[in-house]
């Protein structure tokens, strides 16, 4: 059963047949086609393949040429995306590396081919056969091989075996059992169980194929940037710029439209906004550090004729992390006291935008109207404060305690760290602030060298599997507090194996309730992304998260 595109495996598992009527009736998304591939897809007027999008008027057809410039506040730490964890990697390296499949950059939901031109799923939902596109070459001219694919998937899932640091890909591949080369152009992936999210997880920008011939020789890709994507490295000037240029040997016909992409590293908020207002940069970053709410209003008021503000779900949330290896953070009563006392609306007001939300956001978790009335989330805070102080006293801290709070310097991250200090003081917790650069924060979180931390976490697919296996399961890559609960682990595994959406939601409600009681971290609020783009930037459609539209192969410039 060949399924060259599939939005959600979960929606196609009525009984065990993948060709359920609901899936068969869905119109397939137009998708890129490798040279020589048999798949027939719609073409634009230029002959290039196009993702799912609304038809463009004749006067607004894609054009070739030009450089899109974007601003960011930090450099890419290194080039090894398999070991990447932070958003600094995302909008830069995602244009260089590729995965087997991708999310539609325009419609955001459908899964499109990338290195794989088509795939089959076994009737029991536990075997995936991917047929790779033809004539794919690495940026150094060497051909893509099946060994590259197998090596990369194994390396992401089993970092200890390859002596690497676990990246975001490990959690996304939680369901994978084995990878097998099945011919000159086919790779087979077996899963440990039928998974509702496996294809979606493969489409995340973190699941990329890297060249084995470099990895096996050097051990990592930290100083080598060699992908198969539409753009390749031109230059990297630390703390100044990161330049990509068009890959003229790209295997997909007709794209990219741009000659290149330049990322400017600008740490100062006002200077970064000034670069956008003057046109030095045509697009801001996604999420933070994109536009602040006041900056977005300035753009709407003063630049409406030449710029657009895109407001969208960032899949990003601010949190208070507890190091449960240390006392008193191993005591759920102390953690619960902080969650009850925290005034989330005050934090959102300081940020300028945001939404109170549950563990999974609005898509899978409790609805906002339910969350708004729960202890810790509700207004006013009087009853919550009474209970919070009682919990502190019961835990042995009626007079409060001293601790440290670590967070990243600059912008909204620092502001939220300062908000957290004030909120902690409400239950008698006096926190000395430790303000560090992002790289230092990452290192301290990895070593569990903190007491409390104010930190922003970003998801890529929005599926509960990614959230749970990244942040909450025992030993998860970003379970920085080392929270562990065997009953929660069992429920996490159960929901991952539940293909019926209603049944899965029921299990997730149980997961969410248990985690809200245990409080492995405090979810403060979900951020709202404000991305600015000059109107000459076309075919740009931001959606949930930062990944589907972080790749700019279909973006073009009107001027």
Task: Please give the structural blueprint.
Blueprint lengths: L20 H4 L42 E6 L17 H4 L7 E3 L7 E3 L2 E6 L5 E6 L13 H12 L11 H4 L3 E6 L4 E6 L6 H5 L9 H7 L12 E7 L3 E6 L13 E6 L3 H9 L15 H10 L4 E16 L9 H10 L2 H8 L9 H4 L3 H4 L10 H13 L6 E8 L2 H15 L3 E8 L1 H10 L4 E7 L5 H8 L14 H11 L4 H18 L2 E14 L2 E2 L17 E2 L2
Parallel strand pairs: 1-10, 12-13, 12-14
Antiparallel strand pairs: 2-3, 4-5, 5-7, 6-7, 8-9, 9-10, 11-14, 11-15, 16-17
Please characterize this protein's 3D structure.
There is one protein chain. The chain is α+β, with helices and mostly antiparallel strands. Among the domains are: 231-313 and 528-557, Periplasmic binding protein-like II (D-Maltodextrin-Binding Protein, domain 2); 314-527, Dipeptide-binding Protein, Domain 3 (Dipeptide-binding Protein, domain 3, Roll). The protein is 28% helix and 20% strand. It is built from 18 helices and 17 strands. The protein has helices spanning 21-24, 90-93, 146-157, 169-172, 198-202, 212-218, 269-277, 293-302, 332-341, 344-351, 361-364, 368-371, 382-394, 411-425, 438-447, 464-471, 486-496, 501-518, and strands spanning 67-72, 101-103, 111-113, 116-121, 127-132, 176-181, 186-191, 231-237, 241-246, 260-265, 307-322, 401-408, 429-436, 452-458, 521-534, 537-538, 556-557. The strands form 5 sheets. A 5-stranded mixed beta sheet has the order 13-12-14-11-15. It is globular. The model is unreliable at 1-49 (pLDDT under 50).
């Amino acid at each position: 059963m060949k399924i060259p595109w599939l939005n959600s495996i979960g929606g196609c598992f009525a009984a065990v047949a993948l060709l359920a009527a609901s899936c068969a009736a869905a119109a397939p998304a137009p998708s890129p086609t490798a040279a020589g591939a048999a798949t027939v897809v719609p073409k634009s007027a230029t002959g290039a393949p196009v993702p799912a999008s609304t038809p463009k008027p004749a006067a607004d057809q894609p054009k070739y040429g030009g450089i899109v410039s974007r601003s960011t506040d930090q450099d890419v730490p290194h080039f090894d995306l398999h070991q990447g964890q932070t958003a600094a990697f995302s909008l830069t390296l995602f244009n260089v590396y590729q995965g087997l499949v991708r999310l539609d950059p325009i419609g955001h939901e459908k899964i499109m081919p990338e290195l794989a031109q088509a795939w089959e799923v076994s009737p029991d939902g536990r075997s995936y056969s991917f047929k790779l596109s033809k004539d794919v070459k690495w940026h150094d001219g060497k051909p893509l091989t099946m060994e590259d694919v197998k090596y990369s998937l194994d390396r992401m899932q089993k970092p200890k075996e390859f002596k690497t640091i676990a990246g975001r890909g490990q959690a996304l591949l939680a369901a994978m059992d084995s990878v097998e080369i099945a011919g000159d152009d086919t790779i087979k992936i077996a899963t440990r169980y039928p998974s509702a999210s496996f294809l979606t997880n493969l489409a995340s920008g973190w699941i990329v194929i890297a060249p084995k011939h470099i990895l096996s020789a050097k051990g990592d890709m930290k100083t080598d940037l060699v992908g198969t994507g539409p753009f390749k490295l031109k230059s990297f000037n630390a703390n100044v710029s990161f330049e990509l240029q068009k890959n003229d040997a790209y295997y997909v016909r007709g794209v990219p439209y741009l000659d290149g992409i330049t990322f400017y590293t600008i740490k100062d908020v006002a200077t970064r906004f000034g670069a956008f207002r003057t046109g030095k940069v045509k697009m801001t970053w996604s999420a933070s550090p994109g536009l602040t709410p006041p900056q977005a209003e300035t753009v709407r008021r003063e630049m409406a004729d030449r710029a657009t503000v895109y407001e969208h779900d960032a899949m990003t949330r601010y949190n208070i992390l507890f190091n449960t290896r240390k006392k008193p953070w191993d005591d759920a009563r102390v953690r619960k006291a902080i969650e009850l006392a925290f005034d989330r609306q005050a934090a959102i007001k300081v940020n300028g935008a945001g939404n109170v939300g549950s563990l999974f956001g609005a898509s899978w978790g409790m609805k906002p109207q339910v969350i708004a009335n729960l202890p810790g989330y509700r207004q006013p805070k009087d009853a919550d404060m009474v209970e919070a102080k009682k919990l502190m006293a019961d835990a042995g801290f009626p007079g409060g305690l001293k601790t440290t709070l670590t967070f990243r310097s600059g912008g909204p991250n620092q502001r939220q760290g300062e908000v957290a200090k004030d909120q902690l003081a409400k239950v008698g917790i006096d926190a000395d602030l430790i303000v560090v650069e992002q790289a230092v924060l990452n290192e301290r979180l990895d070593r569990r060298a903190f007491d409390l931390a104010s930190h922003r976490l970003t998801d890529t697919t929005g599926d509960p599997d990614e959230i749970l296996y990244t942040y909450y399961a025992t030993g998860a890559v970003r379970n920085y507090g080392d929270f562990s609960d065997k009953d929660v682990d069992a429920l996490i595994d159960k929901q991952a194996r539940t293909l019926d959406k209603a049944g899965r939601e029921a299990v997730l409600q149980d997961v969410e309730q248990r985690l809200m009681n245990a409080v492995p971290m405090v979810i403060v609020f979900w951020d709202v992304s404000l991305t600015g783009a000059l109107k000459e930037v076309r075919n740009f459609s931001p959606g949930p998260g930062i990944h589907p539209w972080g790749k700019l192969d279909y973006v073009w410039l009107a001027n």
